[in-house]
Amino acid sequence: MVLTGKSIVLGVTGGVAAYKAAELARLLVKAGVRVNVVLTEAAARFVGPATFQALTGQPVWSDLWDQRMPSGMAHIDLTRGADAILVAPASADFLARLVHGRADDLLTTLCLARPRAGVDGATGDCPLLAAPAMNVQMWQNPATQRNVAQLIADGVTLLGPACGEQACGETGLGRMLEAAELFDDLAAFFQPKRLAGKRVLLTAGPTYEPLDPVRGLTNLSSGKMGFALARACAEAGAAVTLVAGPVSLATPRGVKRIDVQNAAEMRGAVLQAVEGSDIFIAVAAVADYRPAQAATHKIKKGAAAMTIELVANPDILAEIAARPQAPFCVGFAAESQNLADYAEGKRMSKKLPLVVGNLVQDGLGGDRNSVVLFDANGQHALPPADKLEVARGIVAHIAALIGKQGKH
Ligand code: C5P
């Protein structure tokens, strides 16, 4: 797990969303993160230190003059050796104070005194992330927007805010992200940006080829591997478009999703989106055949047997790989036997630089996968892991191959 063993200072400022910070602390601790919570005075009015202390197993800090730290310098020591400060929720007032380099309470002083790589005398790097939470009018106020722009220019990473219903009853931008989203964003923050500046297009999931208005041909692909890869590409800094067959999975954060039903629609969406893509990863289990006719009305029961005529679907991946300015194309080979022969055969016949092979019994529908990568240099097995971890391994391999291509 990306966050295991990390040390995070979780700053909490005064806002209703402070209750989500308690859940975030719990998720982080569960993932093996050491969490030191720092509350502002206003935050402690919403959620008390006892809650955070119980959740993190660590002392909770809020007073600049706290003498519990042996050095007496909590404002320095808490960020030395920490991997990041995450302030969630970050109120409008806190952002304003951060912009001005204020140091009039423990949390602002910690942020100001955090070590930054490359700065004289810095013994480490403690990046600052903030998850804004405020009323929509406060968020959209030019003063806040000026502050936000300045914080981004100063190297602060903002997570959110989201749009939605607010505690005050109004609706709009300003809601803090949910704890699970902040957890995912923090994990993504620590991923190497191997695909920064790249545009990635993926297909994922099964296709559904209609036979009549209520029946069709499909397969058992869950879409989980494709969605995990879309997330891993986004985490690696790419701009990601995901063309998804019928699955009910949540869209990975920051990914543009286009939903389709059948192979023809998937092909259409891919052809529309492929222009300008650097990488195309075809993870979808596209139906090889579709019913020659889709009946307008429900087919009625009749004869003892019936024959359905099937016609071949277009091979989307082969078509994209054959384009004159083809992106770097990655195929998947899900086989039930002879993995190496079939995967390498697919790589050659579709003229792909990389094929990801897996045995269906290892991955189909489940949360884990065990894959072998086939490229011009041979086979490389990735260790069996959950699909997101496998996806990160595939992204690292793609980035390395693209890097080598670029050098020639
Ligand atoms: O030839 P086969 O279907 O086994 O190839 C699998 C690979 O080709 C996968 O990457 C899949 O997404 C892609 N494919 C496609 N369009 C099809 C069939 C497969 O893009 N019609």
List keywords for this structure.
single chain, 408 residues, alpha/beta, Rossmann fold, 15 helices, 21 strands, binds cytidine-5'-monophosphate
What does this structure look like?
- This protein is α/β, with parallel strands linked by helices.
- The chain has two domains: 7-189, Rossmann fold (3-Layer(aba) Sandwich), CATH 3.40.50.1950; 199-407, Rossmann fold (3-Layer(aba) Sandwich).
- The chain contains 15 helices and 21 strands.
- The chain has helices at residues 18-30, 43-46, 49-56, 74-77, 92-99, 106-112, 136-140, 142-153, 179-189, 224-235, 263-273, 316-321, 339-349, 360-363, 387-407; strands spanning 7-12, 34-39, 84-90, 128-132, 157-158, 162-165, 171-175, 199-204, 209-212, 215-217, 239-244, 256-259, 279-282, 289-291, 310-312, 328-335, 354-359, 368-369, 371-375, 378-381, 385-386.
- The strands form six sheets. The protein has an eight-stranded mixed β-sheet with strand order 12-11-8-13-16-17-19-20, sandwiched between helices. The protein has a five-stranded parallel β-sheet with strand order 2-1-3-4-5, sandwiched between helices. Strands 6-7 form a two-stranded antiparallel sheet.
- Helix 5 packs across helix 8 (142-153).
- The longest helix is centred in the C-terminal third of the chain and has 21 residues, at 387-407.
- The radius of gyration is 25 Å and the shape is elongated.
- The two termini are 35 Å apart.
- The mean pLDDT is 95.
- The structure holds cytidine-5'-monophosphate (C5P).
- Residues 203, 263, 282-284, 286, 288, 313, 315-317, 331-333, 346 line the site of cytidine-5'-monophosphate.
- Cytidine-5'-monophosphate binds next to helix 12 and strand 16.
